[in-house]
Design a protein that fits this description.
alpha/beta; six-stranded parallel beta sheet; 13 helices; six-stranded mixed beta sheet; homodimer; DNA-binding; 3 domains; Rossmann fold
Chain lengths: ~350, ~350
DNA sequence: AGGTCGGCCGGAAACGTTTCCGGCCAGAGC
DNA sequence: GCTCTGGCCGGAAACGTTTCCGGCCGACCT
């Protein structure tokens, strides 16, 4: 394994100079730099990261924390994978790697998270799908580690977050239903403790108002983002004296649940009731009718988180404004907009 | 940040001894060990991993390589996430962390993969969803890095792999259909270049034989694991002079495609044709009828990969026999076995 | 012509561990 | 009483970088 001293010997300069050449510092002549770089290429030199991290006190890795239990049991992130892809891609472009910090039992998480960050001198940490109030999380933020959350409004004074433009997305769904002639538009929303749920509801509300509609209070019901709750909420809506003709669900699973409820009530979408979801999970194209939904740009979410982190890193840890990534209404079969 | 020398000073022994105590080596008296450990706990000491890795030449991380493009474009791993969870969990138990090695463009992958492994002194690498013949992969294996594949028959002389017991799983599906009275059982399988596809087909064949059935050659058709191919294959099967009464699809997406073909042909599952899938993806419970399928134990797959890696690490790199994890038939609505 | 400045470079000290090598001391064996 | 052994320990050299500090030398200014 060729090291920096080997390069120094073969080029006839000192290790210090080789290091400077490799790191593209100013204090080295163009000629020397060229020779060093050439030889490095030729010998297939690649720097030893642990050594580099040791002296720099900052590694080339950023950590990723997401709560396993939270995710699989609750399926709260049906598209976690796409986030990974976005993160991975953007990270690679800036020459970083991603470390998944793991913990066996969640009670010890508090230690594991902050220790891992310290032990490995992580450049920063991205987190998602975790409880923002968990002691492990607050401890990590307090420890001075650079953090950014996805769909997670972390403490605003020291961290930032990125999320979809939920308001606009919800508005576009409502608008679409309106354009199709619907006036009695209901919404199935999520727990008000979750940022996306509150924002999507707000978007629904403001767009209804903008269109001159005042939603029937009974037409705003609360689910928990899971299939069953969508089913139950829709069933309740359909049993109303004045049932809605269209339903905007704040999540695709709930939307699919609603579709099931429709079918079981002998109704059909989109003929009898139109349904729009939010997220664009894979199943949206697998079910019949296919689901019209507000797609989140998952890759962009991941990429945004990384960019926020990197630029904060460059700025010496300055906090930034939360980032919102645009959504896109993808119309399919469940609301009769077009095929 | 308290270091090992601080501990040495405060306990009155040398750094060498502290290191020995911390690493549970024999050459230190019980009394000294106790004192060191106690103080370490009290001061919240945690070792600097880069420094440790530097001298040990082996980090506490294992790398994970999976090909992004491959995965999202092809959806070949609809359950990748659950693999992550299994890997993460098992890794945590052995005190390791996971590093996602990323590459911006796949043409440069060859370099990035083996460099990352070398640069970070990775303890080993797990890979999945990659092309086993890709130069990047073979180069990595050749570089002497300890590798284990998931659903990936890597070069057997230096690596091992873990996969589901596809034969038995396929057999259980066929057997289930047989028990329900079906005799004309067709299969939609995948590309013969993929290990799981070949094994599932083999399982189908041998179980049919065991049951005394000789499958109509027309009843064995090849898809590519995606929805559309399942649809097409099923349509072809239904158009046969002697159409099957049951279909075993080697993947859930294809099974769902088959279900759609049935519906479009005016047939209903399970009344007219029974369908069984393989994988148990999330959508299996979201569609109607719900899909009977052979579930893979994804967490166990991930865990198995890690265990294989760890034990090879302990054994000094000994190759092991491939690991096969059991599948489980979960019967739902699409074949009329029970509700 | 003397002084200053800036570009380029080398030596050496860090960074926080682990491990080799050797030393001390108590007890055992003769 | 002397050597040998084995348990415990300390000093110091690594591991591969980066960076501080200072030195040299040519060019430029006055």
């Amino acid at each position: 394994m060729v090291d920096i001293r080997e390069l120094a010997r073969r080029t006839g300069v000192s290790p210090a100079t080789v290091s400077r050449a490799l790191n593209d510092r100013a204090e080295v002549s163009p000629e020397t730099r060229r020779r060093v770089l050439e030889l490095a290429e030729e010998l297939g030199y690649s720097p030893n990261q642990p050594a580099r991290t040791l002296v720099r006190r900052r590694s080339d890795m950023v950590g990723l924390i997401w709560d396993t239990g939270y995710t699989t049991q609750n399926q709260r992130h049906p598209f976690l994978l796409d986030l990974f892809v976005g993160i991975k891609q953007t990270l690679a472009e800036s020459g970083h790697h991603l470390m998944l910090v793991s913990t066996a039992d969640t009670t010890a998480a508090v230690d594991v998270y902050v220790r891992a960050a310290r032990q490995h001198s992580l450049a920063g940490v991205i987190m998602m799908g975790v409880d923002e109030a968990h002691p492990a999380i607050t401890a990590l933020v307090d420890s001075g580690t650079l953090c950014v959350g996805i769909d997670l409004p972390l403490r605003r004074d020291r961290t930032t977050y990125v999320t979809s433009d939920n308001r606009t997305g919800a508005a576009s769904a409502v608008r679409h239903l309106f354009d199709l002639g619907h006036r009695a538009i209901a919404t199935i929303t999520g727990p008000m403790s979750m940022l996306p749920a509150t924002e999507r509801l707000a978007g629904y509300r403001s767009e209804m108002a903008r269109l001159g509609l005042t939603p029937d209070p009974d037409h705003i019901v609360h689910g928990d983002f899971f299939l069953a709750s969508g089913y139950d909420c829709a069933a309740r809506l359909l049993a109303l004296p004045k049932p809605p003709t269209a339903i905007f669900a704040a999540g695709d699973e709930m939307a699919i649940g609603a579709l099931h409820a429709l079918a079981d009530a002998g109704l059909r979408a989109p003929r009898d009731v139109a349904v729009v979801g939010f997220d664009d999970i894979e199943a949206a194209t697998l079910i019949r009718p296919t689901l019209t939904t507000v797609a989140q740009d998952r890759a962009a979410l991941g990429a945004g988180a990384v960019q926020a982190l990197i630029s904060a890193l460059d700025d010496g840890g300055a906090v930034q404004a939360p980032l919102r990534v645009a959504t896109r209404l993808v119309v399919r079969g469940s609301c009769g907009g077009s095929p």
